[in-house]
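Internal tracking record. Fields below are filled automatically when a chain is submitted to the structure queue. Please do not edit lines marked as system-generated. If the sequence contains nonstandard residues, flag them in the REMARKS field before resubmitting.
Queue: standard
Priority: normal
Entity type: single polypeptide chain
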Amino acid sequence: MKKLLTSTFIILFFALSACTGKSDSASGNDVDSVTISTNKEEPKTRQPVNKAEYDSLLQYVANGDTTGLWPVPNQPLPLEGAILPYKRVVAYYGNLYSKNMGILGEYPPDEMWRRLSKEVDAWNAADPETPAVPAIHYIASVAQPHPAGDGGYRYRMPDRQIDSAMAIAKMHDALLFLDLQVGHSTVQKEVPAFEKYLMLPHVHLGLDPEFSMKDGSIPGRKIGTMDAEDVNFASEYLAKLVKEHNLPPKILVVHRFTRGMLTNYNNIELRPEVQIVIDMDGFGRPELKYSTYDRFIRPEPVQFTGFKLFYKNDTKQSPNHLLTPEELMKLKPRPVYIQFQ
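SYSTEM-GENERATED OUTPUT FOLLOWS
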């Protein structure tokens, strides 16, 4: 299941070096930067959502699961404005500097949006009970095969590139996720570096344990790991921003396709201000993806689940089939976050 992206890192490393001081154009992704602003008004303090409605939606997402694991019991009610499980997020993933890291960097914005809108429509047709909303899932901190300046083996995207991702999201009023591959750095160092974006109401966070190299290994050569302690730090940091700025709850996506990628999952704390998704991030034939979901996502519940689809890597082997919304709707629990790479 390992992604084996070392060559991609090397390509991106040189691409980043070459782009310093040049136009933010990649694969035709020419967009205007956006101005970051915050609402100075003091909105009404957010209250918890309606419990009966929320519990009913959780049961729907559990899809008849009989293990007793789903829906996750005794979870806090989210604050008003929560996205999950009222809606399903359908996201395109990637980085504007590279065509090799995901669909987001492969096409100019208009063509990318044509394709993403088609996926959103497909999910709305398959599950009209859970309206699908689009999202841009942008890799904002990219693991590197070299120390990258400060020895962190990761490269933080410059503001102008993140602003471009924000502008692409704004084209269709989409959510924006900033995804962090921390390399030799830490969640505790990387999350605060993006605070000015995370304090915006439509910006959410992703963590990729695959590239968190706590043992000092080179990113991409083996699968990394994060602990509940890392997830809790990110969640607490987001919750603080939500409370300070009276924001709607944040979504925190944590990628996973092995047991070791996320340790002590049962110590992850749930908060009204943050909704946590464990995203099945492995690629391969349908039976392999189902197996990964059943081994590492379903039996270790946190709050919500996600499912990642790879346009290329999922279809390389027979039956050369990309799973459909109708097929994924049969999962127990149903994923409420869908990501395409």
